[in-house]
Amino acid sequence: MRSVFYISDHTGITTEKLGSALLSKFPEAKFRNESFPFANSPAKISQALLKVRNRFMVEGKPPIIISSVINPELRQLLHVDYAVNLDFFDAFLGRLEEALGANAVLHPISGVHSIGNEESYNNRIDAIHYSMENDDGVSSKHYDDADIIIVGVSRVGKTPTSIYLAVNYGIKVANYPLAEVDLHSDNLPKILQPYRQKLFGLSIEAPRLHSIRSHRLPNSKYSQLNTCMNEIQSAERIFTHCEIPFLNTSHKSIEEISVAIMQVVKLKRQF
After folding, report:
1. CATH number of the domain residue 29 falls in
2. Which of 100, 134, 166 is the last residue of a domain?
3. DSSP bridge partners of 85
4. Each residue's pLDDT tens digit, 173-200
């Protein structure tokens, strides 16, 4: 097990994505991840490094720091002898300066590497709030405002996909769980029928769903393989009968699922 610390002077979302892409190339290795967003002062950098050093003392292996800090003085603090620091700015700025024939401006610029303009920020926050308030069929009063409504049986990945689309694309996503009563017919539940054009289905392989549900409620009818198989078959029958596009999520990450949905439905990033 190797400890990995994501350190960023902003949200760290991009840093984690890039870092995860690099680490995924080492499938045999196991990583313990910890994030330190908004590390934008010497004090906050020091707090993060204290945890890095403590982890080194306990584990005896230099932790890996994956960082994106725009201030060069703060970046320099991350170069310590008890950790391996992968700095995205150090890695690419020099080559870009050479290619562009210009020096990088190494201090925050309004609108760059920051929260962005107010309208973009508000779009993202509105989408997040909407997706949380319309999660798991809790409410259908505002389905008219949805950019997309994700449908599928329980534990198929509807909620994490909804939140990912809201956070990263500003998409207003509602999601609706197909309950046992909904699966008795090949038709859509009445509540969804007016929104057929907004629907997108998620499916999954039965053994995978059985494994996920067994972790949540072991030895229950809900998690039995036969229950999973029947629910999946019924859900896919509804999708096919009602011409709802759907995707099998079994071997896809949340990122891959979200990008596929964006492409199929032709949704556009809202910020």
Report:
1. 3.40.50
2. 100
3. 65
4. 999 999 999 999 999 999 999 999 999 9
